[in-house]
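Appendix B. Chain record.
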Amino acid sequence: MNSSVTGDAGRRVVLAFDGDCGFCQAAVRQIQRRASPRMEAVAWQTLPPELTEPHLERLDREVLLFDGDRVRDGGAPALAGLLGTSTVRTYRSVGRFLQLPLIRLAANLVYRWVAGNRQRMPGGTAACAVPRPHH
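Structure tokens predicted for this chain:
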């Protein structure tokens, strides 16, 4: 497992993904294998309930970047944060590129589409389907 990155005041920074989703698992494994990020990526289901319970609805829909007990970012910006800790310069550059204002907007749109269709992606199953919002 990757060594943890620490945020301000030495807090643990971790990317939390849906461990029940085959597509999410495969995507995170690919990033870990290719980009060798220094940040730890873990299934949110393995994190302490007191950390995840306030964010369950978001965790069902997107990856979250936790900095200690607070959410720093979600979705595409969270993935950009993970890539930004890569030991490979190219992936670090991609992480920074994804944070540029117009690129961030486009990345968010692509992320939302992929997340909404993850059960149709390679490795995806019916268990990967994002629940419909409760209104």
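Further analysis of this model is presented in Appendix C.
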